[in-house]
Design a protein that fits this description.
disordered N terminus; globular; about 20% strand; seven-stranded mixed sheet; six-stranded mixed sheet; FAD/NAD(P)-binding domain; D-Amino Acid Oxidase, Chain A, domain 2; binds flavin-adenine dinucleotide; alpha/beta; 21 strands
């Protein structure tokens, strides 16, 4: 199906005309929410812009808190049957010396590791599981828009969930300000063959630049290269050889596999949180409501936690209201989630400030000064209580979130 579709809520005639809930966007937030709603007998339609779940650059790393949530939903063993790596001690190499700055195995939880896994199989699992329930419909190749297009289908529902990512069309259509912060750095993301990355997850800081990389041992690997904001056009103009040379000074294997700008995608680091996440008949979650920076790998976990909290509030609101779900009920989602999200974004901002200073200045710091200073920092920092508290908050979330299973049904 190639039609563009407009999503509307209809306050007068909702009970008979369509599904109870339209979820726009099949990322981690939208897929998990759809599965939970389908599992509870809520008529749900999930819209996805592309024809399949494979197409975009996506985050591979999932914090331990996500494992706990998957366990609560009863899907953990299926998730762990997918290709994945368990990450306990991500290695950071600083001026050629390696440090275990974080040790997830010391966390006081059953699942004391992060999950490194490609998103498409995970998303497919949730869509497949949701499809086991009659009241669920998945509509790929369907774009939600606020404009009239050639082919159009109007979906009427009691609630539209904007889970359509950082450039959310649903948020835009609702006239909600995305509330983005300024940032001085961007990440140039490389898609690479699997053998370009020797270890599962790593960071590398040298005077020539900073690389983050994830290898999955399966089909491909990804690496992120921090650049100053607005410099990507100039990097492209200088050509791939110049970029490769620069990357080679930090990691020659990665550089060898970097052959063209087709492997590159610019990830704008524009963290922020929208001014409001709910209105009558509307709820925004995940990146559509708030965008995390790459510091501490938080975006997936935040979107999945949002989905779990939103699910419970939506099910209660559907029972209480006759037609369009009122903001009075939906607003509980924002009051529960905003403080936790704000806390995570605040912790990330601290890390970003260091990056924002380092990336533009790295060329002017001689290695004989930068090396010892950075090593001293990485030897001392992991031993401080505030650093431990920060990564524990990233790993487990500011507070545990229970999965409400009271309304779960068995598949037909
Ligand atoms: C390169 C990269 C690396 C990252 N690495 C990590 C990481 O390692 N760990 C981590 O936790 N986070 C990471 N993140 C962030 C993480 O991927 C996001 O925070 C997370 O995917 C947000 O989930 P979401 O469900 O809110 O939205 P998204 O995953 O962005 O999903 C939105 C979905 O909506 C669809 N869509 C968009 N517009 C429309 C429309 N108009 N109509 C219909 N569908 C639409 C899109 O096609 C997509 O399927 C990374 C992000 C990027 C870009």
């Amino acid at each position: 199906m190639s039609a563009d579709e407009r999503v509307v809520t209809d306050k007068e005639d909702t009970a008979t005309a369509g599904p109870d809930v339209v979820v726009v966007g099949a990322g981690p937030g939208g897929c998990v929410l759809s599965y939970l709603l389908a599992r509870s007998g809520v008529e749900t339609v999930l819209l996805k812009r592309h024809a399949d779940l494979d197409r975009e650059f996506r985050g591979y790393f999932f914090q331990p808190l996500v494992l706990r949530l998957f366990e609560g939903m009863g899907v953990l063993s299926d998730v762990l049957a997918l290709d994945h790596d368990e990450i306990r001690r991500p290695v950071v190499t600083v001026f050629e010396r390696s440090y275990d700055v974080i040790d997830l195995s010391t966390l006081p939880v059953s699942y004391d590791y992060g999950l490194l896994m490609e998103q498409p199989p995970l998303l497919r699992l949730f869509v497949d599981r949701a499809n086991e329930f009659d009241d669920f419909e998945f509509r790929p190749a369907t774009t939600a828009t606020d404009r009239e297009r050639d082919e159009e289908l109007e979906l009427r529902s009691r609630l539209v969930v904007g889970a359509d990512g950082r450039y959310s069309a649903v948020r835009k259509a609702a006239g909600i300000n995305p509330g983005l912060f300024d940032s001085d750095v961007e990440l140039l993301w490389f898609k690479l063959p699997a053998d370009a990355v020797g270890t599962a997850a790593q960071g590398r800081i040298e005077s020539e630049g900073i690389l983050l990389y994830f290898g999955l041992g399966a089909e491909d690997a990804q690496a992120g290269w921090f650049v100053e904001k607005g410099t990507y056009p100039a990097i492209r103009e200088r050509g791939i050889d110049a970029l490769r040379k620069r990357v080679a000074a930090v990691d020659s294997t990665i550089a060898r596999h970097l052959r063209s700008f087709d492997q590159c995608s610019l990830l704008r680091i524009e963290p922020g949180r929208s001014e409001t996440w709910t209105k009558d008949g509307l709820l925004l979650l995940g990146d559509a409501a708030h965008v995390a920076s790459p510091v501490g790998g938080q975006g997936n976990g935040l979107a999945i936690q949002d989905a779990v909290v939103a699910y419970s509030i939506i099910v209660t609101a559907l029972e209480a209201a006759d037609d369009t779900l009122p903001n009075e009920q939906l607003g509980r989602f924002e009051s529960q989630r905003r403080p936790a999200v704000e806390e995570v974004l605040h912790l990330q901002r601290r890390g970003e400030r260091v990056l924002s200073w380092y990336v533009p200045h790295r060329d002017s710091i001689p290695a004989w000064v930068g090396g010892p200073l950075a090593r001293m920092l990485f030897e001392v920092l992991p031993k401080t209580a505030s650093f431990r508290w920060t990564w524990e908050t990233f790993a487990l979330g500011p507070e545990p979130i229970p999965v409400d299973t009271a309304a779960f049904e068995s598949p037909q």
